[in-house]
């Protein structure tokens, strides 16, 4: 077995670095203290010591409910809504003599609405349950006894179990890596399910356990682990392992996290450290921040207003009722003799009028509760779910190349999409493709690369210059352009001076060789060799890194093999002009991170020289060069600035030769820092790297192009036309960001640029003196002064504000976001059409988003594609994730996921506009129809001396909101369109209706409510006046309460449904069916209900057949009253359309006249 393992080892693409070797010199100060008290006995899960610790099982439950808790918890969730709780109270009171209707008729509609919501919750939770069952029943090999491993389900794993995980399997729990296929216990792990990153991570077990590489070797394996308690920190792990009487330090390098996948390794052995809900991935599985739309929050306020109206009407009614009841019996004379006040109960007892008034108040609260739309919440949920389906299935937002449609991950924020005031966007991977191409470089002060970037083309077009005769890099473009465009992924470079081995003829050939050798060595990429063709491809941690390795290969320095401690290259030997193989021993890797902004490797070449190879951002690299580094530093700086102007991402390359003693000291200190478990672990590593990454010799600079995504300029231009302010938050240099801004139409010709920067001579002078307090004070004063001057400039500008763009760098942004200055900065920024924040950190992105959201009170939308955008997405009102190259973490934190930035145009201008209009109109219409219905009850109450007797039959009351008026409103919320998708895109200014909240401002809402009160008044008074004091049918009978009530009810059903027909702008067959079907269903219900026995149908017994239908008065009154009810709204709509048309109405008129070819 050992021979087979070593044979695999020679073929391995997996590698390890000296920096991961364990050391006994470390700090165990925190082990055993609070937070670091976990003890695991490996291979002894059933021992007494393990059992007394009561660690959790590996069963994972992500469901919200269980069988036992579903009913109480889901009921609690439903009755947290104040409207539902109100109907529960009134439904309970319906069982008392106070109720103006039967209890059954009050409870059943509540059951229907609550039941529908609970069924929806149950279905969603059942889907989660099925996912849990699938995960918990996955199988993994676990050590049973005597070196035998057998399959068991994940849910049965216990802390201390030894497991064997095979290639492409997921890790079932958090495991301590003991050994693997390879002799030094390394393995390759994919963590996409954890952090969304697609690049593979390298893990390495302890040397002490690396020899346990077969099942039988674990027969008598014993070890104990002391480590940190369960926590949510994915990238930290502190512990120690006692094995064979020795202590070994543990780090994150030995921890394999649950739900990550084993890759490029046949198998590994591991010990279970954390199970189930103690694992780091489950500890991180917190719910995203709860987001509610502004319309939904405002809807709650309207509900409270309606409660106030109901309370007021009940109070007024009870006061009048108390007064009239007290006067009912005076000197044995009965005014309302039909109530028999001389023999009445407490409800009408003149001797206890105050108590009767109080009871009547409770009756009024129940009766007038029909002001509150009981089906509003569940209807909105249904509508929003269907709207999400429309978004998900929109073919125009499907990205065929990646097979990715749009995906609305939450339905809570649909209408917010139509109200966005500010878009805050990442650049790399969001505006650009995050597919890097090596296009230019500067070596020894000479610029190479003749291809032209998209930004350069945009700059030429902006300046009105042709591209044909430009001189680039000292070479005529026409002569230097390649005959055939390269199709090599990541490589868009051409320069005949150094391609095809011509670099050996260049004056600085030695520097060129070192330059491309550094690109071929300084990385963590893995080569993949195609067995049939022998072609080498690379799997790298980032697109930049892959582009560098490909560029080195294409220019004669092919990286083709990586072993555990070495890298093999095929190089062009300048002396023999032949390709030779060279092997470099990898001693250490100093990894890249956002604070270091650089990466280094230390290698030993075949001649025994130790070389430090370093690449990094110019902001940290130039200061690390030796004073006599080279005579081409200024030329390199100039080229870097030119590359930034061309929208390219640049890195500086430098190296240093180390002597043995210097390296030995560094390696000792670096290993001690890596193996430390003290609080200053990171500081120790930084201190060790600082001592070696200095006095570097400059080689040159690279420039890679991150191309703009298709359609980005047009999309940004359309969003700007829609009045949406656009901010770009990027980590790029200011020059790069500005030129990308021009290329994507964020910055436009004639737009004034206002730049805030600390690159002033005064600040630079202070920085040389290294007086921190003076630098901070001067920086604050400078930023404050620049912001003040910007505000004055905006205030005095004669041109439109949309022609101003604000650009600020990261250092300045840090001061601008401080408490005493952030409001000034926001005021300046909101006066600009475009804002670009350069060199901004992930934290700054989130802070800027929070500032804009809280400072303006308007809807903010953040869009990004990487893990560094998560904070920004969660802070914004709406988070949009781009499912791009940088994994899925941004998508997992987003509210809606799209594949390309250009899809944002359709998402906002079409779906956002429609959803806002539909939800706004739907809510307003719900309140209108319920006020029309409820106020007619109040008017009848007043007409009947507030007797507490409803105008309508009990079941008429109950089913109004369920069957006779709600379904057409739902159809409006799903299907209505004021204009088509094509016209939404053709006239972006339509979007401002939502951004300015035209359809859901208080004036508009109160107008609809007034319409409801007016409609109820017209229906009641016309019905009573036309039916009162005259014969209703040929027999001479007058209309009683049942006839009057049913006639009023019929008029209400007709009026609210026909007004819906007038309001709708886009009729579909479904809307026709639901509108006319609701009216027809009312007559069918009246017919069927009246055919039941009188004990069930009560006042409606054969009412339609025997009383209403045969009477012409019923049909004439219905027609007359319905028309009169619609006249005020129809008149208002006609006057508004003629004299005060909204923007969408103007477009409708243009479409109607056939004048769309002329937008004016």
From TrEMBL:
Lipid bilayer topology: Multi-pass membrane protein
Active site as annotated: 426
EC number, as in UniProt: 7.6.2.1
Cofactor list: Mg(2+)
Signal peptide: none
Regions crossing the membrane: 101-119, 302-324, 357-378, 923-943, 955-975, 1005-1027, 1047-1067, 1074-1092, 1112-1132
InterPro entries hit by this protein: ATPase_P-typ_cyto_dom_N (IPR023299), ATPase_P-typ_P_site (IPR018303), ATPase_P-typ_TM_dom_sf (IPR023298), ATPase_P-typ_transduc_dom_A_sf (IPR008250), HAD-like_sf (IPR036412), HAD_sf (IPR023214), P-type_ATPase_IV (IPR006539), P-type_ATPase_N (IPR032631)
Domain P-type ATPase N-terminal: 40-106
GO cellular component: plasma membrane
Main localization category: membrane
GO biological process: phospholipid translocation; protein localization involved in auxin polar transport
Keywords: ATP-binding, Magnesium, Membrane, Metal-binding, Nucleotide-binding, Translocase, Transmembrane, Transmembrane helix
Root EC class: translocase
Pfam families: Cation_ATPase, PhoLip_ATPase_C, PhoLip_ATPase_N
GO MF annotation: an example: ATP hydrolysis activity
Localization of this protein: Membrane
Residues holding Mg(2+): 426, 428, 865, 869
Residue ranges of every copy of the P-type ATPase C-terminal domain listed in the record: 891-1141
Binding site for ATP: 426-428, 545, 592, 615, 649, 730-732, 839, 845, 868-869
Catalytic activity: ATP + H2O + phospholipidSide 1 = ADP + phosphate + phospholipidSide 2
Functional note: Involved in transport of phospholipids.
Similarity remark: Belongs to the cation transport ATPase (P-type) (TC 3.A.3) family. Type IV subfamily.
Name of the featured protein: Phospholipid-transporting ATPase
Organism field: Rhodamnia argentea
Name of the coding gene: LOC115749887
